[in-house]
Amino acid sequence: MRTELLAPWAWRQPVQAQTACAATISYRYSSSMKSLSNKFVHLTNYSVNKKNTEYKSNLDETACQGHKWALKALWNYLTQKGVNSEAIWEKIKDIVIKTIIASEPYVNSLVKMYVRRPYCCHELFGFDIMLDENLKPWILEVNISPSLHSNSPLDVSIKGQMIRDLLNLAGFVLPSTDSIASRPQTRSDSTCSQGSALKEKPRPASECFTAEKLKKAYYLTQKIPDQDFYSSVLDILTPDDVRILVETEDEYSRRGQFERVFPTHVSMRYLRFFEQPRYFNILVTQWELKYYLNKHKGLELLKKWCVKGYHNGAGTDLAQMVSMAMDKLGKGCCEERGREPWSLPKSFFLQKSRVQSNGFSKLELDRLG
Fold first, then answer.
1. 134 and 252 within one domain
2. What does the DSSP 8-state code read for residue 27?
3. Number of domains in the chain
4. Are residues 275 and 350 in the same domain?
5. What average pLDDT does this structure show over 246-275?
6. Do both 254 and 361 map to the same domain?
7. Does 321 fall in a domain?
8. What are phi and psi of 131, to 5 degrees?
9. Residue 243's closest CA among 345, 122, 118?
10. How confident is the model at residue 27 (pLDDT cuts 50, 70, 90)?
11. Start-end of H helices in 56-84
12. What's the whole-number mean pLDDT along residues 251-272?
């Protein structure tokens, strides 16, 4: 049996997953060499099996009939048979997460090279997962252009809802009408190329920018990080931190029937699989770990900061930030952990040419940005 799973992914945004369909072959499987050329025996694709005169359609997404079921119908069927369908689903989610992580370095480098703004970079992947005789899931392939054709009421019900949720999840940032009307259109113009029309991420003040780089450097250069160390990333939030957390929670509120599989409160165990650590992965996983049992508290905290304009750098008290850094990530705390403290030196407030980088070169700081 093959299950189809749809997983949208956006650069620097969480991974979501939504179940689709479970498909079976329309002829009874046989390992005999005589059936080797019979596609109806070895392929579960609808485009193949619909040509079989014995193929049976399914018109009801709750029914366990025909050769194509809704995945939730399969889970109900297995549960009635005494099978732990939730355990199977957890294994499938694990496959999706690790598959995305495996491709992350390549995709991330291309995105940085060719994509000007993350708001216009989204992808829908179709995961083909096979369940063997022991109901262990195996990944067969990942389709970069999964079929969205709807040839039956079952397809319309599942894919229609998925497409609606997908567009809401993407949260397209549209250019303003005035900006479009005031500039001549060229063949190269697009939503992604109209810089002045988009709601750009505000540029932080140079002081905040330096503070953000120093903080990233501190959390990405520890040789043996642990949960106690990572949890301190939330002690002092920079404006950029707040923006990322707001975007993450905002997307979560638009998820519809999608389930977010990364980040969650258990995502820390996946960070070791990344080719290199990512600061915002650390940030959002720690945020989830801290507030997953009390989402309202976390949201209220973000609202409070946004009302004050902290996410745009407004109201940022750099002196207070330095003081908090020394108190919470200062010498006493870090000596207990056997680490060098992160702090913004006093020279941070002097001329830019005299700012100390806490041991990091300008090239290293640029790479972190």
1. no
2. S
3. 2
4. yes
5. 93
6. yes
7. yes
8. -100, 125
9. 118
10. low
11. 71-80
12. 92
